[in-house]
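During the second year of the project, the team shifted from modelling isolated chains to modelling whole assemblies. The rationale, set out in the original proposal, was that interfaces cannot be judged from single-chain predictions alone. As a representative example for this report, we include one of the complexes processed in the last quarter. Its constituent sequences, exactly as entered into the pipeline, are reproduced here:
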Amino acid sequence: MSAPMHAMAVDSFVMMLRNLLGILDKGEAHARAKGFDPAVLVSARLAPDMFPLSKQVQFVCYQAAECSARLTGKEAPHLDAGEETLEALRERIKRTIALLEAAPAAAFEGAEDREISVPLRDELVLELKGLAYLKDWAIPQFYFHLITAYAILRHNGVDVGKADYVAGLGSAIRKRGGGGTQA
Amino acid sequence: MSAPMHAMAVDSFVMMLRNLLGILDKGEAHARAKGFDPAVLVSARLAPDMFPLSKQVQFVCYQAAECSARLTGKEAPHLDAGEETLEALRERIKRTIALLEAAPAAAFEGAEDREISVPLRDELVLELKGLAYLKDWAIPQFYFHLITAYAILRHNGVDVGKADYVAGLGSAIRKRGGGGTQA
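Output from the structure prediction step:
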C-alpha cells in the first residue's frame, strides 16, 4: 500500500500543483491584457470574510507539504506566508513541488496505518490513521484551497476552464478509436 | 487494496455528500431568514459562463456514482438532471448516498488495476487504470463540483465555513490532552 499512498499524496498533488501554475499564468496574462496590476488578483476574494487568492495558494501548498511530512513521520512544516505577487505564489508552488518530489516513495511504507495527530485551533486535535487522514482530511483540504483559488480567478474573468484544471492528464486522453494522444 | 479503494470511492464520498446536505440546509435556512426564494440560490453562479448550483450538485452526485460504477465494472449511470429546488437537490444527494452504500466493498476487489475508459466530448476518451482514474480524475472532479457548490453559497452570503465542509470528521476531533470527542 505504500505505492498508492505515495501516488496519492505526492504524484497527484504534484500534478494538480502544476495545473495550478498554469492557472495562475492565465491570471497573470489576463491582468496584462486588460492592463491592470496582477496583484489585484492576489488579494481578490469570493466573500469579504473568506481568504484571498494569496492565502488559498499558500494553504494548498501547506496542505500538500504537511500531508507528505505527516505520512512519512516528519515534523509538520511551519506555515510562512507573505507572498504578494502571482510570481511569488508561483515560486512557492514550485518549491512545494520540489519538496514533495524529494520524498522517496519508500518513506511512505506503512503510512496508511500511521497514527496521525493534527493540532487544530481551540485546543482541538484531529486524530486519524494515515489512510483516513489522507482521504478525509488532506485531500479535501488540498482541493478546497486549490478549487477556491481557481474559482476566485474564474469569478474575476480569467479564462480558465476544466481543461486547465486537469491539464496534467493530457497523456491519458486519446482520440476515440485512434491511437494518438492529445496534450 | 480493495478496502482502500472502497474507502476512498465510497466512504469518503458519502461523508462529503452528507456534509453537502448540511451545507444546502444552511442555504435554505439563509434564504428563509432573509425572505427570498431558496430557488434563487439554485440558479446562482460564480461567473456567467459557469454552471449554476443545481448543475454543480448534479455533477458531484454523478461523479460519485460514475466512479463507483466504473471501479466495479458496471455501466456508467445516465446523467438525468432537472432539479430546480434545494429540496430536490438534497433528494438527489440522498439517492446517490444510498446508491454508493449499496455497492459491497468486495466489488472493489482489483479495482486499482481495472482498465477504465471514460468517453469525453469531441470524440476524446480518457484511459487510465483504476487507481489513477480515482486519484487523478474522479476525486478532482468530485471535489471540483462540491467546492464550487460551497463557494456559490458562500459568495451569496450563506454562513457556511470549514466546520460544515468537514462536519463528518467530528468523531475524530478531540480536546487536546482530554479524552472527549467533539461533534
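The radius of gyration of chain A is 17 Å. The CA atoms of residues 56 and 145 of chain A lie 5 Å apart.
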